[in-house]
Design a protein that fits this description.
Strand order of the largest sheet: 1-13-8-7-4-5
Largest sheet: 6 strands, antiparallel
Structural class: mainly beta
Oligomer: single chain
CATH superfamily of the largest domain: Golgi alpha-mannosidase II, domain 4
Distance between the termini: 42 Å
Number of helices: 1
Amino acid sequence: MEVVSRVLAQVPPHPDASPADINEGYWISLAPGFPVTKVLRDFPFGVEETTQPAFQGLTFVDLIGQDRGLLVLHAGTQYFRREASGALSNLIMREWESFFTKEFGWPVYAEYRHALLPHDGRLGHGDRLKAAAEFVRPPVCLLQEPRRGDLPPFQSFLGVSPGSARISAFRRKREGGYELRVVEAEGRRTEATVSIRLPAAKAVETDLIGNKLGEARLRSGQLAVSLEPWKIRTFHLE
């Protein structure tokens, strides 16, 4: 379920509307219908449990109960706090200030998006990160007239399995070839396979700045990658 919050800071709330909590900013609160026993949040290239009363979630916060959970996705509002009532609050708007003019105030209008995804409490980190990426970066669609083609009904030019492995970066390099980075997201050793449907016949492993570390196994468009927990590996394809 997607929730859209519209904030007009200079307009009093409608009598039938649920006003946002204003305390050093505008907050929106969510009260789950089950006891929360654990809270997960993500940070760059990692996911962890947090017990802090206030914390940041880069793209999501997952509220976990005994046999259920609620994944809360946001589009950039990263600061959260726990309430004594058990609710979770998200800071969506803060007062702005100008360093040059010493002026202070509120944006006239702002709109914020959240998605609420219930689950059975056994969601994997890879699934959480995938859902967050799909929420903030939906695919770009190009509409054309229907016509017969020679491609299969669906296909990706780049894919990775299992779900605990994630593609963290992919780009075409100016000097030729492609750069690919794969990260392990579940905290356990994983044997992953990257499926590549691009004109690439050779792969080498590099460090983060492109220096060659060794050869990689690329056969018939399949790149075999051994990943240690939370480790990032970088490859050059050509």
